[in-house]
């Protein structure tokens, strides 16, 4: 009898604690649901309509997605996102790995290097885009500089349709690679140095040791970086919007800049929502596949 | 022989490594240096040769741009947005992360999975519904409407960072306080907050940086110049003076300088905070 009442009081205390816990969780949760969770669900709803933002929307089922699969402009933009992802999976990752591998060996001044290298990451994209627009300018920037050096046909970074996308990607990776470098540096600081020393004693040179001994030890960080980079490449927006607006022509158009224009300028929020949703779905599917492979024992 | 080599390696890094790193660092920071350099030149000088040193430093540029760009108002708007966002985000996330790690009510796993999801989704994808909700609620083109968005989008990252910090606080301390009759709110306020000062500082800096640098929503949702934050004021300013590169550079320095100074003071917090979110996510 005594025990039962005791148990009852415990459960009452527990329930009280549970209510208290949820009171603490809810403000943050609801604020985020209002700004992000709800709108993402809303995007799903809007994508099933022909809404133009003014008149009442009509339900049209999956028509927007059918239209999307035939929209060559969308497919072109998606291809650009793919190129962007490939560029980002190679250039900043390679830079970051190499420099992190070198800085790690610096005994004195390592922190100063880290601090100074990281600085571009703090610079807001609005200003970074402008500085690089000046640098890329055919009249005053690198192009003019090369011309003065006697190169007759210097690259016209933002004006050349074949080059514009990569020129912009380079600017974004100028900010991005330092972020990766710090991630790698943190991972490298936990690497077991005695294995490296053993490899060196066995006659491997520094580069061989780095590739075959050090890098395998930070594989979890590398695969995380590759996953993050892929996901971010799908929704990247800032620098293309700021520097080329998708041009010249539509040579540097990305899915996100296309979506933005359709939503706010061409008054097709229904169709633009379908594009948004495809981007959300890509991240979800990609993460699920990674999770599934991890469960199956893949070391990624 | 081997011993000698080892001693040499410990003595210091080879000279050529430092040279290589310094050259690479200069190349990497060159665009920022160029911005600072050209901010002190006349426009003719910039157009003549962007790489040259200013003949006479034009400090007047700063006063002019501050005036013409309406930077007093823009700074005020950004400061308000930062202070309010930091206060709300840090308070709400502190409570939320505490409850999720130390009280663990039923369903808190679901909440943490939800935050994992929203953290991986780009905020650009919430644009369309928010745009029309904001029109309906008359929050379009208002500073408080913008601040509300900033609060919402910063929550997942800060909850995640705080959670991983709170996990390191031993439960025994909290349990003994409970036995002494301490309520959860006073445990949070008197025990958890004092030992978590570093993470509150890091979180505040991260939210502050995100708000200062954000331009996507500020650009789409604010049309009135007097309501613009610093980043979008810069965008409007460069549109207005698109051919005056010296002014564009001066405004650029004004735009980034507060964050650069803050970064140089709190570089460890910035770097650890900015990278921690992605590692845990």
Describe the structure.
The complex is a heterodimer of chains A (300) and B (281). Chain A contains 13 helices and no strands. Chain A has two domains: 1-38; 63-295, Orthogonal Bundle (MetI-like fold), CATH 1.10.3720. Chain A starts with a helix and ends in a 5-residue tail after the last helix. The model of chain A has no long low-confidence stretch (mean pLDDT 88). Chain A is flat, with a radius of gyration of 26 Å. By secondary structure, chain A is an all-alpha fold. Chain B is mainly α and 281 residues long. Chain B folds into two domains: 13-58, no CATH class; 78-221 and 268-280, MetI-like fold, CATH 1.10.3720. Chain B is built from 15 helices and no strands. Chains A and B meet through helix 1, helix 3, helix 4, helix 5 and helix 7 of A and helix 2, helix 5, helix 6, helix 7 and helix 8 of B.
Task: Describe this structure in a few short sentences.
Chain A is mainly alpha-helical and 300 residues long. Chain A has helices at residues 2-46, 63-70, 72-103, 110-118, 125-136, 142-148, 164-188, 193-201, 206-217, 219-235, 238-243, 255-264, 269-295. Chain A has two domains: 1-38; 63-295, MetI-like fold, CATH 1.10.3720.10.
The CATH first-level class of the largest domain in chain A comes to Mainly Alpha
Helical amount of chain A: over 70%
What is the distance, rounded to the nearest whole angstrom, between the alpha carbons of the first and last residues of chain A?
Answer: 55 Å
- Give the name of the CATH architecture of the largest domain in chain A: Orthogonal Bundle
């Amino acid at each position: 009898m005594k025990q039962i009442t005791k148990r009852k009081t415990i459960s009452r205390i527990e329930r009280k604690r549970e209510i208290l816990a949820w009171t603490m969780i809810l403000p943050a949760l609801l604020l985020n649901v209002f700004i992000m969770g709800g709108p993402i669900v809303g995007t799903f709803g809007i994508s099933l309509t022909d809404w133009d933002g003014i008149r009442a929307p009509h339900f049209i089922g999956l028509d927007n997605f059918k239209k999307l699969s035939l929209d060559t402009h969308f497919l072109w933009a998606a291809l650009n996102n793919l190129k962007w992802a490939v560029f980002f999976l190679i250039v900043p990752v390679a830079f970051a790995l190499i420099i992190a591998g070198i800085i790690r060996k610096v005994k004195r001044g390592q922190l100063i290097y880290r601090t100074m290298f990281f600085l571009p990451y703090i610079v807001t994209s609005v200003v970074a885009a402008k500085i690089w627009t000046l640098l890329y300018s055919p009249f005053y920037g690198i192009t003019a500089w090369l011309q003065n050096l006697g190169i007759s046909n210097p690259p016209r970074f933002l004006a050349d349709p074949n080059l514009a996308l990569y020129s912009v990607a380079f600017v974004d990776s100028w900010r991005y690679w330092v972020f990766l470098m710090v991630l790698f540096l943190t991972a490298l600081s936990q690497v077991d140095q005695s294995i490296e020393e053993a490899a060196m004693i066995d006659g491997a040179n520094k580069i061989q040791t780095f590739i075959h001994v050090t890098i395998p030890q930070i594989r979890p960080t590398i695969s995380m970086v590759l996953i993050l980079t892929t996901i971010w490449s799908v929704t990247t927006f800032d620098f293309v919007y700021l520097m080329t607006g998708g041009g010249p022509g539509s040579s540097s158009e990305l899915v996100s800049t296309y979506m933005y224009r359709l939503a706010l300028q061409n008054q097709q929020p229904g169709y633009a929502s379908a594009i948004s949703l495809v981007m959300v779905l890509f991240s979800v599917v990609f993460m699920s596949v990674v999770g599934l492979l991890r469960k199956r024992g893949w070391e990624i | 022989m081997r011993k000698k080599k080892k001693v040499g390696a410990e003595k210091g890094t080879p000279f050529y490594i430092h040279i290589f790193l310094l050259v690479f660092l200069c190349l990497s920071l060159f665009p920022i240096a160029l911005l600072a350099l050209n901010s002190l030149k006349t426009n003719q000088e910039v157009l003549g040769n962007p790489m040259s040193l200013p003949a006479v430093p034009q400090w007047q540029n700063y006063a002019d741009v501050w005036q013409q760009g309406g930077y007093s108002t823009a700074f005020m708007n950004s400061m308000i947005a930062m202070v309010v966002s930091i206060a709300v985000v840090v308070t709400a996330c502190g409570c939320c992360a505490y409850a999720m790690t130390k009280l663990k009510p039923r369903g808190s796993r679901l909440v943490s999975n939800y935050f994992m999801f929203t953290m991986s989704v780009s905020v650009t994808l919430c644009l369309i519904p928010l745009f029309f909700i904001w029109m309906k609620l008359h929050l379009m083109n208002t500073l408080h409407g913008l601040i509300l968005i900033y609060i919402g989008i910063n929550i997942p990252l800060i909850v995640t960072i705080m959670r991983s910090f709170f996990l390191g606080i031993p439960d025994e301390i909290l349990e003994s306080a409970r036995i002494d009759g301490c309520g959860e709110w006073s445990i949070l306020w008197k025990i958890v907050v004092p030992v978590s000062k570093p993470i509150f500082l890091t979180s505040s800096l991260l939210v502050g940086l995100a708000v200062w640098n954000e331009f996507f929503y500020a650009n789409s949702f604010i049309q009135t110049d007097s309501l613009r934050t610093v980043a979008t004021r810069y965008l409007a300013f460069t549109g207005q003076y698109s051919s005056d590169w010296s002014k564009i550079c001066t405004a650029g320095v004004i735009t980034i300088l507060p964050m650069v100074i803050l970064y140089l003071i709190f570089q460890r917090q910035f770097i650890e905070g900015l990278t921690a979110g992605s590692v845990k996510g």
